[in-house]
Amino acid sequence: QVQLVESGGGVVQSGRSLRLSCTASGFSFSNYAMHWVRQAPGKGLEWVAFISYDGNSKYYIDSVKGRFTVSRDDSKNALYLQMNSLGAGDTAVYYCARGPPYYDSGSYLDYWGQGALVTVSS
Amino acid sequence: SSELTQDPAVSVALGQTVRITCQGDSLRRYYASWYQQKPGQAPVLVMYGKNNRPSGIPDRFSGSGSGNTASLTITGAQAEDEADYYCNSRDSVGYQYVFGTGTKVTVL
């Protein structure tokens, strides 16, 4: 069955960096686009980043452009989110989610991990 | 970037029908997808594309769209449908994605 497991969350000081990982299993990882989505405490969902199945296309929400980098390592079935210059507004649960396969032009997120909490302290 | 607007909260009597709407300019070009989130849990995809339900999602959930509005309808709402619901779509340019503001559904 499809599984996505995030790791790397924790408490980090403002201005510092953190890297989240998402390990995928149960499907052909290299065939699928992937997303990062976050949810601040008590708030709604916020899309953060997208990476295409081949890694050639990467998109970000404006508030993280230049600070966050999404990447993937298909040999490890892993998705990453490198987060630099973190601020209080980045405090959230970060979810990785699977997008459509390469042959599907849809824009849905069909499987989600359980999330990793990132807390930025001052 | 685009915005998707949802009513903050709706309530429905057990067994009745409720429609949740999502409005935004990007919906004129892209289909919405819908997510159910219960407290302390990750979101779950319940509807995508024109009117596609993932495996395991009850057929009381249906989707539709017209112009700049997408809708998720629950026909015969059950207690377990009480949750937050979010729509999602690409933005108008297609390079970013956006979630709606969310609707809290209460089943009375």
Give a brief rundown of this model:
The complex is a heterodimer of chains A (122) and B (108). Chain A has 122 residues and is mainly β. Helix content of chain A is 0%, strand content 53%.
Number of strands of chain B: 10
Mean pLDDT of chain A: 97
Instruction: Describe the main β-sheet of chain B briefly.
Output: 6 strands, mixed
Instruction: Please name the two chains that share the biggest interface, counting residues whose Cβ lies under 8 Å from a Cβ on the partner chain.
Output: A-B, 23 and 26 residues
Strand content of chain A: over 45%
Q: Figure out the total of helices of chain A.
A: 0
Return Rg of chain A in Å: 14 Å
Question: Order of helices and strands of chain B, N to C?
Answer: EEEEEEEEEE
What would you call the structural class of chain A? Answer: mainly beta
* Biggest sheet record of chain A: 7 strands, mixed
How far is the first residue's CA from the last residue's CA of chain B? Answer: 36 Å
Q: Into which percent range does the helicity of residues of chain A fall? A: under 10%
Q: Per the principal axes of the C-alpha atoms, what is the gross shape of chain A?
A: globular
Q: How far is it from the N-terminal to the C-terminal residue of chain A, by CA?
A: 40 Å
Radius of gyration of chain B using CA atoms only: 13 Å
Number of strands of chain A: 11
General shape of chain B = globular
Topology:
The complex is a heterodimer of chains A (122) and B (108).
Chain A: E1 3-7, E2 10-13, E3 18-25, E4 32-39, E5 45-51, E6 58-60, E7 68-73, E8 78-83, E9 92-101, E10 111-112, E11 116-121
Chain B: E1 5-6, E2 9-12, E3 17-23, E4 33-37, E5 44-47, E6 61-66, E7 69-75, E8 83-90, E9 97-99, E10 103-107
Parallel strand pairs in B: 2-10
Antiparallel strand pairs in B: 1-3, 3-7, 4-5, 4-8, 6-7, 8-9, 8-10
Description of the structure:
- The complex is a heterodimer of chains A (122) and B (108).
- Chain A is an all-beta fold and 122 residues long.
- Helices cover 0% and strands 53% of the residues of chain A.
- Chain A contains no helices and eleven strands.
- In chain A, a hairpin with a 4-residue loop joins strand 7 (68-73) and strand 8 (78-83).
- The N and C termini of chain A lie far apart (40 Å).
- Chain B has 108 residues and is mainly beta.
- Helix content of chain B is 0%, strand content 47%.
- Chain B has no helices and ten strands.
- In chain B, strand 8 (83-90) and strand 9 (97-99) form a beta hairpin.
- The termini of chain B are far apart.
- Chain A binds chain B through residues 35, 37, 44-47, 50, 59-62, 95, 97, 106-115, and chain B through 1, 30-31, 33, 35, 37, 42-45, 48-49, 54, 84, 86, 88-90, 95-102.
